[in-house]
Write a structure and sequence with these properties.
heterodimer; A: mainly alpha; B: alpha/beta; Rossmann fold; 2 domains; four-stranded parallel beta sheet; 15 helices
């Protein structure tokens, strides 16, 4: 029983981090219908900024984490302003192609820094002894990860429900023309969506970096790793990202725990999320919580 | 008067021509080499210091006139771990008339093997995959193959395990690089090596290895032999440590002892895993810089001379790059000493003759470099290192696995 519980806990922890990583995708898609292919690079950039502030500038980790979020917030906002603002109103595929170009540019910039080719690790700041309850163990880093994910997702949900800007963003996601007609600034909304996506990506990057170490290949690969999460949850649903993240985390852990090593199977945790994704999409083509738009003609 | 001027001019020309001609002859030859590797992209954490080691050593050769008037021109190009780019780089190098080629990855070495054969050019990759040398006369591994390393770790476990047959799990990279040596370890077991492989795990980009570690424990696993890159091993070590599963000493009952091949270890592993790397056992044919010796001194001096930071200077992959450059330089020296032209054929011939009295000790390895028509791996000996207080320390003397020959 404790083995099963351990898998559940591990699955929820990993799933939370997936959800946080997927959030950036959702925020951008929700407001602009654009799939940001360079999301993995932004995750990595956020982690490297936090590391630089902590280790090279000697700022305490908690403070540098907050600063890292702020820096990435403005960095992502600048990216939108420089590269994407001019494409408002252009076909979505053009914007997606620009994000592919952006991915290459960010890759190139990061390769010019030591982060592109070397491994780094955050200085330990949490106790290394895990918390153990009823035979189930969870590390402090994982616990902080879950708490941070909950806080960020809760905060963003509140923002979208309660704040004027959040409601404006939802309105833009719903209908750009109608939003413009009531005076909502579309460029402002897009800029903010990118900025918030950058911030959540930085948080995810710092968390993943704390768990795996800072390796550019590992970090930017998460942009792809969380793709099934985004699709499963529904591209425009924050709740969907959370639920799908946790489902994916649990599937991976159960597959690794019960399938791998039996019947000649190995690494099923890598494949199972995609299999489950395929099955679910057969019945729910817009994902678990994605909006199925019906157009009247 | 005019006649005098002509005579003076003729005399000047007569004096200058031989002098200039002599100087041209004395300027020496430029020996062209090529290196294509991942300076960026996947595995660049190993490729980057490797490139620095190669570059610095050839600069030293030229700066200190190690080859007299001759110089080495080694063209180094990034291939981003992409076989297509590697092939293009190799073709460009051929157009430059290189006499020796340094390659990098397992995939590109296997993919270009026929090209090397057609061009009749000797190649030394950074990949130690045993399959690189199969069905070719032109690919040479700098050190013992991954298979030899994994079998060596297996032999060490079997020899030092206390009760019964040791149960091991293999934690490998999900690629040809990772899978390569597994079959050879299985062959060694069939040939009598007392090990029981309970599971072969091909890792992914896992954020949590709890399920895998608990599963291995439930199967009675005591040793995990790793053959991959450092980052996933570090994550696993941290998870194992957090779960209280890491053995504090070799073979501690009820715990897991972790061991690894060349590319799993080194200072980066300790940096990534922190205290969780304690008691990690690592096997390679290279020296480590925290243990004083002539090789370590030479490596640190070279890095200091060309302004490398501590991380690169102390990297085993810097030693790796430096060592292949040392071997190539030695081949050129020997080819020159033979009196003939330094050509591709001469380099290949000298490589095959590097054995017995003509073996080569670069100092950066734990044994001599030997090659022959039947020996395509340079350094045959391995050294086991164990992490104590955050540093890799030698454990025992260099050894040569006995089962490697038995399974050939």
């Amino acid at each position: 029983m404790s083995y099963f519980l351990q898998l559940v806990v591990s699955g929820v922890v990993v799933g939370s981090i997936y959800a946080l990583s997927a959030l950036g995708f959702v925020l951008i898609y929700k407001s602009s219908r654009v799939l940001n292919i360079a999301h993995g690079q932004i995750i990595a950039s956020g982690a490297f900024i936090t590391y630089s502030l902590t280790v090279w500038m000697g700022i305490p980790l908690v403070l540098s984490f907050a600063l890292g979020l702020c820096v990435t917030f403005f960095l992502a906002m600048s990216v939108e302003r420089i590269f994407l603002r001019r494409l408002i109103g252009e076909p979505i595929i053009s914007v997606i192609m620009v994000t592919i170009g952006l991915m290459s540019i960010l890759d190139g910039i990061i390769y010019l820094t030591p982060f592109g080719t070397e491994n780094f690790s955050f200085p330990p700041f949490l106790p290394t002894t895990p918390l153990v309850f009823a035979g189930v163990s969870v590390s402090w880093t994982q616990l902080v990860g879950v708490a941070l994910t909950a806080a960020m997702i809760g905060g963003l949900s509140m923002f979208f429900r309660r704040s004027t800007m959040g409601i404006a963003m939802r309105a833009v996601a719903d209908d750009q023309m109608a939003s413009m007609s009531i005076g909502i600034s579309i460029p402002k909304v897009f800029g903010l969506a990118w900025a918030l996506a950058g911030m959540s990506a930085a948080a995810a990057g710092a968390l993943i970096g704390n768990i795996t170490g800072l390796n550019f290949d590992t970090l930017h690969a998460f942009g792809i790793t969380v793709f099934p999460v985004v699709i499963l949850g529904g591209l425009d649903s924050i709740l969907g990202a959370v639920v799908a993240g946790i489902i994916m985390g649990l599937i991976q852990q159960f597959a690794a725990g019960y399938l791998d090593g039996n019947w000649g199977l190995s690494s099923t945790g890598e494949i199972m999320p995609y299999l489950i994704l395929l099955v679910i999409l057969l019945f729910k083509p817009h994902g678990l919580f994605g909006i199925h738009e019906i157009e009247r003609v | 008067m005019k006649g005098n001027r002509l005579q003076v001019a003729a005399l000047a020309v007569a004096l200058l021509v031989p002098a200039l001609g002599g100087q041209c002859l004395a300027a020496g030859k430029v020996h062209k080499l090529g290196l294509s590797l991942a300076i960026t992209g996947p595995t660049s954490d190993a490729g980057n210091p490797y490139a620095k080691g190669v570059e610095d050593y050839f600069r030293l050769v030229n700066d200190t006139e190690m080859l007299g008037e001759d110089t080495i021109d080694c063209m180094i190009r990034d291939d981003q771990y992409n076989n297509d780019i590697t092939k293009r780089n190799f073709e460009d190098f051929l157009a430059e008339d290189i006499i020796f080629y340094l390659n990098y990855s397992t995939g590109s070495t296997l993919a270009l093997k026929k090209d090397f054969e057609e061009e009749r050019i000797a190649v030394m990759p950074a990949s130690f995959h045993a399959g690189n040398t199969a069905d070719t006369n032109y690919v040479f591994l700098p050190i013992a193959s991954y298979s030899t390393q994994l079998v060596g770790l297996g032999e060490y476990v079997a020899a030092n395990h206390n009760e019964g047959v040791a149960k091991v799990a293999l934690f490998i990279h999900p690629s040809a690089f990772g899978r390569g040596p597994v079959e050879d370890l299985q062959k060694a077991i069939k040939a009598g090596l007392k090990l029981d492989i309970v599971e072969v795990v091909e890792h992914g980009k896992d954020l949590d290895n709890t399920a895998m570690l608990k599963r291995l424990m439930s199967k009675g696993t005591q040793y995990v032999l790793t053959h991959t890159v450092q980052s996933p091993v570090a994550t696993m070590l941290k998870d194992a440590s957090g779960l209280g599963l890491t053995a504090k000493s070799f073979g501690e009952a009820g715990k897991l002892t972790f061991l690894g091949c060349h590319y799993t270890g080194g200072n980066d592993l300790v940096a990534l895993a922190g205290d969780a790397a304690e008691n990690f056992h690592w096997v390679t044919s290279y020296i480590v810089t925290n243990e004083p010796g002539p090789g370590a001194t030479a490596q640190l001096q070279l890095a200091a001379r060309y302004g490398r930071d501590d991380k690169a200077a102390n990297s085993h992959n810097y030693a790796n790059g430096m060592m292949v450059a040392q071997v190539v330089t030695e081949l050129i020296k020997r080819a020159k000493a033979g009196g003939g032209e330094v050509t591709r054929e001469a380099m290949h011939r000298e490589l095959l003759a590097m054995n017995g009295d003509r073996s080569f000790s670069p100092g950066t390895t734990v044994g001599p470099v030997t090659f022959s028509t039947t020996d395509k791996a340079g350094v045959d000996t391995l050294q086991l290192y164990v992490v104590k207080d955050g540093l890799f320390h030698s454990s025992g003397l260099p050894f040569t696995p006995v089962y490697t020959d038995k399974i050939k």
